[in-house]
Write a structure and sequence with these properties.
By secondary structure, the chain is mainly alpha-helical. It is built from 34 helices and eleven strands. Helix content is 55%, strand content 5%. It binds iron/sulfur cluster (2 copies).
């Protein structure tokens, strides 16, 4: 046994040295990035939420379990990693005790002879084995060779994934070899419970005592050796996530990376545009070294599972953007230029010319790490962030790169320039005069108060109308419906009228943070001076900006979306839908209402209260809802590549054979309306099909207006 112990310990020292060297390298690379003190501060200040996230996301595997088959398989394999640590404790105990005393009958003190522990070890090993079979079947069925782009594994490193499955398989069979032989030699600590090890012992028993006495140390060394080789492979592969996922979850935003866009930071501090200097400050991300350590942690943690890619509307309509590849391409580039990133000023000049040549490659560009078509295809829909089981924050990466492109390089789709100019000069993306903002008020048969510097005393809510709601004909119908419903329910409200300017959302999502800041500060000043406390908004983009982003600049209000307020008023009996609307309606979840703000129930609750409405969910709904194509300032850009996203969404809606499509966002209304009109022209949709806001349905039913036959 002494020789076995020496071999085992030498193997361990070598593997720990190799793995440790790599871990140190990864640490140095990550910490060469920009500081992100807010991540640590947030985690510290929200310790309760962080612990919950570890329990739910890491140990409970909440997100993965939504994907039933692969999620269940992953659940067991992950827990095998934890529980089988006890088997390795035993293995090292046997190795060391055997080496010292010559009797390899070690057991863990106190619990090491419990049948329950023996059973648990065997059970999880068998479950992990079944998990491996499930993974193999899933990988074969979803092979990119078979499904091409439609495979979520398309672009992933497939060889590495198979190698890891093979290594886990080796961990399991060597465990049973070692334990089976130990039962036959009388060195096994569990008298019962270890059912699979007993089965292995039954298979090995006919070989005789002598053979089992040899197999026991051989199995032990193989079991330890496989784990050591596996550890070295893990820290050199995508399976690094075994160690980095809990860290990434701990330093991610809560509840996830959706909701507010992050302020621009330089050197860990929020950038003050009045003092910022593009020469010395970091403006977004123009080079890989501008990535924060949290960004590097995202790179290390990606499991290449492709769940983000599978849900991405851009990828699903044949655009070049895959959120997975966006992370992996940056990671691969960071690894290639790591010698530069980690070197001191003086060492850099002496680096190999291949590394120096790579530094010439721009982060974003035609020949860059990320192609501009990739960057500008993103609708900021948040599906990638929502799906990612390890809390990678793709939108933060995209926005940072867009910021550099827009503010430093002035390089962005030219058509969006008109929108920026209009925002700057007129305070709305269409460039309409501000006097037009209150025209819809005159079309109502009751009076709406317009704020004259101060909120009227009796007004409970400020109704934030938004640019589309005030200026776009289809969205104006929603605005009028909401105003009328509030009036009927007796909710006192006022509007800003010409004093309202765009919240700045399209500028911010495009990457023009400076303009966003300007508009946001102007609005916050107006709101604060007027003494606004509560806001109701119809546009989910305005809602998200007012509720989640204005607090970053000192504007804190109680903000609700109109569907939340209307659902509440219906519940309270202040609005009573009475007239039946006998229609089949499918609801489209706006991304900035659903995924970004988790409002899924209220629009559905409203429809459920309207008599006669038969709701029919689309295949992709709620958390997995499919974007309309307008977010991320895409509303203001041409869609030249692949299928139009709004057409794809309407195609899906048509599979439910609806009489109407409902939604709760003025941009979705326009995008889906346009696609429906195209479908009508081509005869693929019935002439009567239209898209409406849920408020329009509600007002019809509340007012008892006759519904035209579908
Ligand atoms: S936010 Fe939406 S469009 Fe952008 S990468 Fe993620 S899934 Fe794709
Ligand atoms: S980013 Fe997240 S969801 Fe996408 S492949 Fe990586 S781990 Fe999977």
């Amino acid at each position: 046994m002494l020789l076995v112990a020496i071999i085992g310990l030498v193997m361990t020292v070598v593997a720990v040295a190799l793995a440790g060297r790599r871990v140190l390298w990864l640490y140095k690379l990550a910490t060469s990035g920009q500081p992100a003190p807010e991540r640590v501060e947030y985690a510290r200040a929200n310790l309760g939420a962080e612990i919950k996230a570890q329990l739910v996301e890491v140990f409970g595997q909440r997100k993965l379990l939504k994907w039933t088959a692969s999620g269940t398989a992953h659940f067991f394999v992950m827990w095998a990693f934890f529980i089988l640590i006890t088997v390795y404790l035993e293995a090292y105990g046997v190795l060391i005790q055997g080496g010292i005393t010559g009797t390899p009958d070690f057991h863990i003190p106190l619990v090491g002879t419990w049948a329950v522990l023996g059973f648990l070890q065997d059970f999880i090993a068998v479950a992990a084995l079944l998990g491996l079979i499930a993974f193999a079947v899933i990988r074969v069925k979803n092979s990119p060779k078979k499904l091409g782009r439609k495979s979520r594994f398309s672009g992933s490193h497939l060889g590495g994934a198979w190698l890891v499955l093979f290594m886990i398989f080796n961990v399991i069979w060597t465990m049973f070899l070692f334990r089976g032989a130990a039962i036959n030699t009388g060195n096994f600590p569990y008298r019962s419970g270890a059912f699979a090890s007993e089965a292995a012992a039954a298979v090995l028993h006919p070989l005789g005592e002598g053979v089992n006495e040899v197999l026991e140390p051989v199995g032990l060394l193989l079991h330890i050796g496989v784990m050591l080789v596996f550890s070295v492979i893990v820290v050199n592969s995508k399976h690094l996530h075994i160690f980095t996922a809990p860290m990434n979850v701990a330093f991610s935003r809560r509840p996830d990376g959706n909701g507010p866009a992050q302020p621009m930071r330089s050197g860990g501090k929020v950038l003050d545009f009045e003092e910022a200097d593009p020469e010395t400050d970091v403006f977004g991300r123009g080079k890989i070294e501008d990535t924060t350590w949290k960004g590097f942690l995202d790179f290390y943690t990606c499991t290449e599972c492709g769940r983000c890619q599978d849900q991405c509307p851009a990828w699903n309509t044949d655009k070049p953007l895959s959120p997975k590849m966006l992370i992996l391409d940056q990671r691969d580039h960071a690894f290639k230029v790591a010698p530069y990133l980690m070197a001191g000023e003086q060492e850099r000049a002496g680096l190999h010319e291949d590394v120096l040549a790579l530094l010439e490659k721009p982060l974003v560009g035609e020949d860059g790490v990320i192609h501009p078509d990739v960057l500008w295809s993103c609708t900021n829909c948040g599906a990638c962030v929502e799906q990612c089981p390890v809390d990678i924050e793709h939108i933060d990466h995209i926005l940072d790169m867009r910021r550099y492109q827009v503010m430093i390089e002035s390089s962005f789709p030219s058509e969006a320039g008109v929108m920026l100019k209009n925002l700057e000069n007129k305070g709305n993306p269409w460039g309409m005069p501000e006097s037009k903002r209150a025209e819809w008020v005159e079309e109502l048969d009751f009076e709406v108060e317009i704020v004259d510097e101060k909120m009227p005393e009796d007004a409970e809510y400020l109704f934030w109308v938004g640019c589309a709601g005030a200026l776009e004909d289809r969205a104006k119908k929603t605005t009028k419906a909401v105003a009328e419903l509030l009036h009927i329910a007796g909710v006192k409200f006022a509007v800003l009228g010409p004093m309202e300017a765009c919240t700045g959302d399209p500028a911010r999502r495009l990457g023009m943070e400076f303009l966003f800041n300007m508009l946001a500060q102007q609005n916050i000043e107006t709101l604060n001076e007027a003494g606004v406390k509560k806001i109701v908004a119809t546009c989910p983009h305005c809602f998200n900006t007012l509720a989640n982003e204005y607090p970053q600049l000192g504007g804190t209000y109680e903000v609700v979306h109109h569907t939340q307020l209307l659902a509440h008023l219906v519940d309270e009996g202040k609005l009573t839908p009475i007239t039946p609307i006998e229609e089949k309606i499918t609801y489209h979840d706006p991304c900035f209402l659903g995924r970004h703000n988790k409002v899924y129930a209220q629009p559905r609750d409203i429809m459920a209260k309207v008599p006669g409405v038969q709701t029919q969910e689309m295949h992709r709904c709620k958390e997995r809802g499919f974007c309309c194509g307008a977010g991320g300032a895409r509303m203001w850009m041409e869609e030249r590549i692949g299928k139009r996203i709004n057409t794809e969404r309407v195609d899906e809606a048509l599979t439910t054979d609806p009489d109407r499509v409902s939604t709760a966002c003025p941009f979705c209304l326009v995008m889906l309306g346009d696609a429906i009109n195209e479908k009508k022209n081509s005869g693929e949709a019935k002439e009567t099909l239209e898209v409406v806001d849920v408020a329009q349905l509600l007002i019809k039913s509340v007012k008892g207006e006759p519904t035209p036959a579908p």
